Amino acid sequence: MKNDKEITAYINGQPIYRNFIENLPYNIKLKPRARALRKAGVLSEVIFWLQVHKEMFWKIDFDRQRIIGNYIVDFYVKTLGLVIEIDGSSHNNKETYDQKREDYLISLGLRVYKISDLRVKHDLNNVMMELEKYIVDEFG
User: Fold this and answer.
1) pLDDT at 120
2) Contact predicate 6/17, CB 8 Å
3) With 50 as the cut, is the pLDDT of residue 93 above it?
4) Please, how many CA atoms are within 13 Å of residue 126, restricted to the half-sphere of its CB?
5) How many angstroms separate the CA atoms of 48 and 139, rounded?
6) Residues linked to residue 84 through DSSP beta bridges, in sequence order
7) Domain 11-134, what fold?
8) Which residues make Cβ contacts (< 8 Å) with residue 88, sequence separation at least 6?
9) What is the per-residue pLDDT across 29-60, written as a single tens digit (0 to 9) for each?
10) Phi–psi pair at 97, nearest 5 degrees
């Protein structure tokens, strides 16, 4: 086994190795906001969620609107330490904030994968294939 790491999933027969990050900071005050974001259901996030919930994507478990530190990330894969962000118009003119947020998440040992809102809505099959490839490349 690679680096004696636990295999968490297989994608097209390729083992995907666990990269669990322990003791992530959690701001409990953000819990109501995270719940509200889940209920609001931004269209691109709902479309993506329908592809990955209930371990439908290679039996990998995704969380929605997960609190990490003082931030709420769109999707989080605990076993991989992977944050998935769907960037839409809410990210316009927030480049400095987004970069600070991404730098913070990376400083915790997490990996951040970004997907465009428009691509989720109009090119979902390729988006999912690219995510597969990213996971195989980074965790295989």
Assistant:
1) 96
2) yes
3) yes
4) 7
5) 21
6) 75, 113
7) Endonuclease; Chain A (3.40.960)
8) 42, 44, 116, 117, 118
9) 999 999 999 888 889 999 999 999 998 999 99
10) -60, -50
